[in-house]
Amino acid sequence: MVCKLKARKKSIKLSAVSALILPLLSEQLMKRRMQFLSIMGFFGRTTRRQSQVNLFAYHLPLDAHPDVGNNAQLGKLLGINNMSPVANSLLWTGELELNVGEFGVEIDSALQRAPLIIGDQSANIKRIAWCTGAAQGFIDQAVELGVDAYLTGEVSEQTPATALENDLVFISAGHHATERYGVQALCQHLSDKFGCQHQYIEIDNCV
What we know:
By secondary structure, the protein is α/β, with parallel strands linked by helices.
């Protein structure tokens, strides 16, 4: 996403990406002097010094923001109702009227990535908790919330056992796939506020 912000005598161009993976940028982009707005920061060290880029990265603040944050944007994208952040946590909760299989289809369509689902595909989801990215470690918080399902980006070896022991549906929808919407919403907000042009640069990541 390229944003142009007017400031006194200078004009700043921001190119927004989920994570700046320098080896995957085109050679043309690498040769430009660019400022990147990112959630994850740099991935890949060998080409960093050779590039002509500057980076502004905001991770947890962009996860938690109530409007342009990753969790808020993912919830809207997936059609979750009555969304609200959990106090003193990065988790959000909301309501659905779908069974697990139907919700899996919705996720696949919205994120263009098939999710890994642990649990009964025919079970109904009424309440769901979620946190984008690598938040599989928060599954115990989801259990305490008494929700029917917990969605995040990644999965660990012990995660299925925790889910099955607690009769909780667990959904891993991809780290990159769940965390690329907050940075787009942030630059859209900047565009609306400052009247700048923008575009999103997709740098895919299979994780």
